[in-house]
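User: What would this chain look like folded?
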Amino acid sequence: MPTNKPQTKTFVIPDQADRFPSSTPPGLPPDGYVITFSATDGYYIAKPSTRLLILSFPGAGASPYSVVNEDVVEVPSHSGTYQVALPISPLPGTQVYIKDAGGVANTNPINITTTQLVDTQNPYQITNNFGCIKVVFTGTTWSVISKV
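Assistant: Here's the prediction, encoded as structure tokens.
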């Protein structure tokens, strides 16, 4: 007679130190990430959850703020131009969300700077109060995927 013993399987996630170099220890994704399977390359990879968590809320005096890896950045109320620097040469597919949480971008823009371009611009500006963009790195440039 067959027994209903649970089968055990080993779940191996490849080293992700190149994707998350600033974590402790290197290679661990930030809180709020989920493990997903990529059928394209056959690997499991950590990605931000579809439920977005605000990962960074820099202070008003934190300009320029440097994004380290995939991130959701809420820029607080600030005076003058606020600088957000995107990562240099991240892995293709890296996504970053940036939002004017302070609602002052109309008179105090948010400059998004990078060593590459963001939709052919550097800096790319958020100038709408409570405006938000989602950008993804293509391997050579940053592309705006959505914009409010």
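The chain has a mean pLDDT of 80. If you want, I can go into more detail on any region.
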